[in-house]
């Protein structure tokens, strides 16, 4: 089976962090979002991992090659942001089973079932209270009959979570070709949902499979929520010898320095970060950041940022220098 991860988005809701790194490389619970996605799929038999990149795509390529070089890899560049379906169509020659993954969220799926390469397609969904913010799947008699993007009227509470399995990639590519030839767009872009709708109308059987976990990583608030979830579910890491009070769950890199501070709960501290004389909770501190004399919660601190003397919520990008009395 091939796995295709779409990573070309600009990540505007995570600025300023995504000015200097692509959204899938933003850290949560000790490693980039993209690493969480790939690591969760490693026990599948992946014949090829395809990453569709765009903005700052070289960083994606370098990270994946460095950490997953044992998998056959391919990188395709989406030069214009023309939509999800356009990104997928860059690999229009592929055939066989295909898993398409959006690179901005974490999803828990039944990988044992997927490993059997089912003969019918699967669109992974999560029941939500307010479906108006999502694309949803309408199900009748056990199969999807319609996909609706952000419905005004509630037609279904099954939100589509960004994981799609098709047993034959060429049928998906043919459907994408059709919507492009007929200029079928949503909000000025070629949406995957429109191509899947064409497949449904051609008789493709697609099932909606509910997932137990779905965590968005597209905003600061969502990223911090995902950090809390992951730390509560097996991704915490404690380090001995810190001259501080550490309140679990936390994820602290072995070479981070924490002195005379209270850190936790729900704090991730990356490689080379330094925290001194501070009280920090519910925060992600990225690599090489330096924090001192701070009371901080609900914050996201970029790589190599410097923060001295403040009691607030902060969203600080890479290489920032904040000094407030």
Automatic annotation (TrEMBL):
GO terms for molecular function: transferase activity. Pfam families: NTP_transferase (PF00483). It comes from the Bacteria. Coiled coil: none annotated. SUPFAM superfamilies: Nucleotide-diphospho-sugar transferases. Residues 3-231 form the Nucleotidyl transferase domain. The keyword Transferase applies. This is NTP transferase domain-containing protein. It comes from Candidatus Chloroploca mongolica.
């Amino acid at each position: 089976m091939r796995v295709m991860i779409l990573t070309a988005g600009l990540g505007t809701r995570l600025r300023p962090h995504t000015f200097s790194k692509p959204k899938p490389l933003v850290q949560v619970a000790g490693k980039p979002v993209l690493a969480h996605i790939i690591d969760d799929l490693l026990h599948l038999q992946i014949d090829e991992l395809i990453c569709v990149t765009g903005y700052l795509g070289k960083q994606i390529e370098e990270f994946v090659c460095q950490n997953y070089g044992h998998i056959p890899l391919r990188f395709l560049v989406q030069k214009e942001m023309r939509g999800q379906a356009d990104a997928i169509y860059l690999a229009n020659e592929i055939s066989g089973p295909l898993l398409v993954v959006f690179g901005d969220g974490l999803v828990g799926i039944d990988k044992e079932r997927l490993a059997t390469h089912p003969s019918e397609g699967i669109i992974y969904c999560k029941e939500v209270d307010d479906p108006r913010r999502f694309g949803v799947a309408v199900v009748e008699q056990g199969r999807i009959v319609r996909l609706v993007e952000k419905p005004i009227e509630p037609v279904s509470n099954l939100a589509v979570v960004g994981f799609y399995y098709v047993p034959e990639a060429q049928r998906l590519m043919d459907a994408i070709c059709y919507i492009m030839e007929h200029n079928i767009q949503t909000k000025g872009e070629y949406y995957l949902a429109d191509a899947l709708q064409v497949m449904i109308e051609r008789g493709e059987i697609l099932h909606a499979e509910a997932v137990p976990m779905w965590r968005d990583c597209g905003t600061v608030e969502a990223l911090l929520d995902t950090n809390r979830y992951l730390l509560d579910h097996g991704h915490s890491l404690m380090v001995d010898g810190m001259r501080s009070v550490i309140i679990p769950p936390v994820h602290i890199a072995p070479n981070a320095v924490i002195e005379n501070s209270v850190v936790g709960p729900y704090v991730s501290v990356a490689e080379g970060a330094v925290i001194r004389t501070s009280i920090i909770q519910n925060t992600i501190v990225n690599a090489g950041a330096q924090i001192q004399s701070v009371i901080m919660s609900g914050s996201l601190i970029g790589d190599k940022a410097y923060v001295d003397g403040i009691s607030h919520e902060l969203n600080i990008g890479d290489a920032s220098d904040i000094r407030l009395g």
